[in-house]
Amino acid sequence: MRLKNKKIIALVDHDFEDLELWYPVLRLQEEGAMVDLVGEIAGKKYVGKYGVPANSDRSFSDVNVDKYDAILVPGGWAPDKLRRYPEVLAFIKHFDQMKKPIGQICHAGWVLISAGILDGVRVTSTPGIKDDMTNAGATWHDEPVVVDGHIISSRRPPDLPPYVKAFADKLADE
Predict the structure, then answer these.
(1) Given 14, 94, 107, 141, which residue is catalytic?
(2) Against a cut of 0.85, is the pTM above it?
(3) What angle is formed at CA 104 by the lines to CA 101 and CA 110, rounded to 5 degrees?
(4) Mean pLDDT of 44-58
(5) Is the pLDDT of residue 49 over 90?
(6) Where are the domains of the chain?
(7) What does the pLDDT look like over 4-33, one tens digit per residue?
(8) Confidence category of residue 174, pLDDT binned at 50, 70, 90
(9) May I ask the CATH architecture of the domain 7-173?
(10) N or C: which end of the chain has fewer CB atoms below 10 A?
(11) 3-class DSSP string for the chain
(12) Active site annotation includes 107
């Protein structure tokens, strides 16, 4: 289990893209990682776009980011909510400053944009936010997964296998 003793934050809010949250969480747990679902309120049931629930393990205020090795931001409409929390933006900035893996897929790029960390970074996302990404200073690529240092980005659910593999590979190298 190459990710044993690795701790990951997976951000959650209502209307997350079900597969973009659960596929990475389950795959990383299979590799031995501990993944905490972190939302505004601990123990709250958040519901994905297609009705799959996710109960948060911790609240934003309960988290000490220094105890985590990486962070995941799922897509769906949740990123538009998540980027409004100062705590979430502080988490992303911390992981960026520490050069720890940040995974983002689909609309999750909005969170990284709001955190102000994409200037000069190579990324991908859903094509729907390509302009947002480039306006934030990123260089956008239409590829299943783009790894630029510690930032791992992907487009959409069909790209989940190479995205999660790239994220796990980066985390295993830390």
Answers:
(1) 107
(2) yes
(3) 125
(4) 98
(5) yes
(6) 7-173
(7) 999 999 999 999 999 999 999 999 999 999
(8) confident
(9) 3-Layer(aba) Sandwich (3.40)
(10) N
(11) CCCCCCEEEEECCCCECHHHHHHHHHHHHHCCCEEEEEECCCCCEEECCCCCEEECCEEHHHCCHHHCCEEEECCECHHHHHCCCHHHHHHHHHHHHCCCCEEEEHHHHHHHHHHCCCCCCEECCCHHHHHHHHHCCCEECCCCEEEECCEEEECCHHHHHHHHHHHHHHHHHC
(12) yes
**Are 48 and 54 contacting, i.e. CB atoms less than 8 angstroms apart?**
yes
What are the structure tokens assigned to 96, written together?
Answer: 């960026």
What sign has the CA pseudo-torsion 36, 39, 45, 47?
negative
Tally Cβ neighbours within 10 Å of residue 10: 24
Residue 74 pLDDT exceeds 90: yes
The phi and psi torsions of 171 (rounded to 5 degrees) equal: -65, -35
Report the amino acid identity of residue 30: E
Give the model's pLDDT for residue 101. 98
